[in-house]
Design goal:
The complex is a heterodimer of chains A (about 80) and B (about 400). In chain A, about 60% of the residues lie in helices and about 0% in strands. Chain A contains 4 helices and no strands. Chain A is globular, with a radius of gyration of 12 Å. Chain B has one domain: Peroxisomal Thiolase, Chain A, domain 1. Chain B has an 11-stranded mixed β-sheet, sandwiched between helices. In chain B, strands 2-3 form a two-stranded antiparallel ribbon. Classes of the chains: A mainly alpha (about 80), B alpha/beta (about 400). At the A-B interface, α3 of A face loops of B.
């Protein structure tokens, strides 16, 4: 899957799940602040990533995820590992 | 000096309507809220009749974080509570300035439990049930959600007492205010209506199987009744210390005069006569009233052969034929965990608007109920004092006496 495809799919489900405006999502923006995530929301992030990409993340996978770009990278690396 | 306890607001979301006004009209018209559910039949129900209650859309009213922890019983309860608070003239600032309590009756969260368990079975991973699952699949789901939404700082708990849950919630709120431990308690009852909620109850074979005539299936006190019909939704009443209510200029709708409770100490599902009688006698004693003071009785009567007969015997023995008697379950079906509160709301609505709602489908009065003044058709009549009965599995009984002010 290309990075553009990952970005498209990810942005679509983030907008839907967290009910935010598309404008909120910018590659370098802070993920937690932009989506107003609390600790419980990361559980739901794991759920929607699994249902959209078939990959299982763990809470600690998000330790180094600060921006949306970081999230796309994380998903890309997990997909790559599976492939 | 014990304090007086008054009702300053009410809210309702049921098969008879989505607010007090719609429900009042349905009660007056004797309109049934019962339908046949093809989904339940397909699922394997012996009787697929149910009260029809739509799931409310709360996307514009609550945040995602608030909604994700709510099953339908909490959603129903939120809608009913929202209406009750508006009517009680309580806004968000009220909760900042006052220690308000919350006691809500609820005794199942079947859908959340079934659906989250199914996900774990399929995915073999508990994380994938999502963050809302735990808050939806605990029995106290309604109170944990409402207490968070309204920033409740007083008593906060769910009352689980089967089909008397909503009535005991009012009773417990009444006692807390009467003793001076709380000035205001939000009380209520909620009942889920999804296909998972009533499957095991249906399995007992106690639901009416009159599927070809849904609106005629629930027929309390009728000789040809053949079982109950489940219903649901939620009802909320705001209980308040009389003096506090007067001080803030609140609308005072009615006063809770007495609460009686008892346990049958008998069979798990078969009701008796003596247990409910003791609850009603205790309510009268608490209210310092005699049976002759009760003008209307909203019976528990669910349309089961044994339950209705035993309640009719208890009512006849205690009250004779003087008070009017009807079971609004003839229209709503049995609203179970919610019924104890919803039926107080229905009765207050009747008292406010000067009528007694009918016990519909009462074509041929059962021989055990011949001496009661059963209301077959709507009666236009002003009345003030009523008693509401609620009985549940395990033999838990509750009786509430209310006076319109």
């Amino acid at each position: 899957m290309s990075r553009d495809e990952i970005i498209d799919i990810t942005n679509r489900f983030l907008i839907e799940e967290f009910e935010v405006s598309p404008a909120v999502i910018q590659p370098e923006a802070n993920l937690k602040e932009s989506l107003d995530l609390d600790s419980l929301d990361y559980v739901d992030l794991v759920v929607i990533i699994e249902s959209n990409f078939g990959i299982k993340l763990d809470n600690k996978d998000f330790t180094n995820v600060r921006t949306f770009d970081d999230l796309y990278d994380l998903i890309g690396s997990k997909l790559h590992a599976i492939a | 000096m014990m304090r007086r306890v008054v009702i300053t607001g009410m809210g309702i979301y049921s098969s008879l309507g989505k607010n007090l006004s719609e429900v009042k009209d349905s009660l007056y018209q004797g309109r049934s809220g019962i339908v046949f559910s093809p989904e339940r039949k397909e699922f394997g129900y012996r009787s697929a009749l149910t009260g029809l209650v739509e799931r409310p859309d709360l996307t514009k009213l609550l945040s995602r974080r608030q909604r994700i922890s709510m099953g339908e019983e909490s959603e129903f309860a939120y809608v009913a509570t929202r209406e009750a608070l508006v009517n009680a003239e309580m806004d968000e600032a009220f909760f900042d300035d006052h220690i308000v309590g919350l006691l809500y009756g609820n005794d199942s969260v079947s859908q959340a439990v079934v659906e989250s368990t199914d996900i774990v079975r399929q995915k073999k991973d508990t994380t994938l049930v999502g963050s809302g699952a735990i808050f939806k699949s605990m029995n106290s789901s309604v109170t944990m959600n409402l207490s968070t939404i309204y920033r409740i700082r007083g008593i906060n708990m769910t009352i689980s007492a089967a089909c008397a849950s909503g009535s005991h919630a009012i009773g417990m709120g009444y006692l807390l205010i009467k003793q001076g431990l709380q000035d205001c308690v939000i009380c209520g009852g909620a009942q889920e209506v999804n296909k998972f909620a009533m499957a095991s109850f249906d399995g007992l074979g106690v639901f009416s199987d009159r599927e070809d005539e849904p609106e005629k299936a629930s027929r309390p006190f009728d000789k040809h009744r053949n079982g109950l019909v489940p219903g649901g939704g939620a009802a909320t009443i705001i209980l308040e210390d009389y003096e506090s209510a007067v001080r803030r200029g609140a609308p005072i709708l009615a006063e809770v005069l007495g609460y009686g409770f008892s346990s049958n100490g008998d069979h798990i599902s078969t009701p008796n006569v003596e247990g409910p009688m003791r609850a009603m006698e205790l309510a009268l004693q608490q209210a310092s009233l005699s049976p002759a003071d009760i003008e209307y009785i909203n019976a528990h009567a669910t349309s089961t052969p044994m339950g209705d007969a035993n309640e009719a015997r208890a009512l006849t023995q205690l009250f004779g034929g003087r008070p009017y008697v009807s079971s609004t379950k003839s229209m709503t079906g049995h609203e179970c965990w919610m019924a104890g509160t919803s039926e107080v709301v229905y009765s207050v609505l009747m008292a406010q608007h000067g009528f007694i709602a009918p016990n519909i489908n009462l074509d041929d009065v059962d021989e055990t109920a011949q001496d009661l003044s059963l209301v077959k058709n709507t009666i236009n009549k002003n009345f003030n004092v009523f008693l509401s009965n609620s009985f549940g599995f395990g033999g838990t009984n509750s009786a509430i006496i209310v006076k319109k002010l």
